[in-house]
Design goal:
Length: about 130
C-alpha cells in the first residue's frame, strides 16, 4: 500500500488555455507554452468567418503590438484588447468564455464561440447573522 501525505489542497489541473471576459484575454500557463518563448508583445487579429482571435508574437518596436502583462502572482498573463474589440466591432462579453488554443505555426487561435461559463459565486461574510 502506497503512503499518501496530507496536503491542504488537491493539485489543480488547468482546463483551458485562455479565458476571455469583457475585452480582456487571459492566457493560462498551458496557453503560454503554446506561444514562442520570451514573447512580451503580441499581435492580434480577427477572422470573422471562423469567429476567432489570432495571437502571434510581435517584434519590439511594433506600434500595433499589445503588451502581454503578467496577471497576479501566478503564471497567467493578460492582454487588454479593448482596441481590437472596438476596431472589429466585437461586443465585449458579459459572461466569460474559455477554451483551448488551435495552433498553426507561430500563430495561436482563440475561438469566440463559447458556452456559458458558470457564474462565479462569492462568499458572503456573516452568513449566519443574515439568517437571523
Amino acid at each position: 500500500m502506497a503512503l499518501e501525505w496530507f496536503t491542504t489542497q488537491a493539485p489543480q489541473q488547468q482546463k483551458s488555455d485562455y479565458k476571455i471576459a469583457k475585452s480582456t484575454i487571459v492566457i493560462t500557463e498551458s496557453g503560454l507554452n503554446k506561444l514562442p518563448s520570451g514573447a512580451a508583445l503580441v499581435k492580434l487579429g480577427y477572422d470573422a468567418e471562423r469567429n476567432v482571435i489570432a495571437i502571434a508574437p510581435a517584434e519590439p518596436g511594433d506600434k500595433t503590438a499589445f503588451k502581454l502583462a503578467r496577471r497576479g502572482r501566478g503564471a497567467q498573463h493578460q492582454i487588454t484588447a479593448k482596441k481590437l474589440f472596438e476596431r472589429f466591432m466585437i461586443a465585449p462579453f458579459a459572461k466569460s468564455i474559455d477554451g483551448n488554443f488551435e495552433v498553426e505555426g507561430d500563430v495561436i487561435f482563440a475561438s469566440l464561440m463559447g458556452g456559458d461559463a458558470p457564474v462565479r459565486r462569492r462568499r458572503r461574510k456573516n452568513a449566519a447573522s443574515e439568517t437571523k
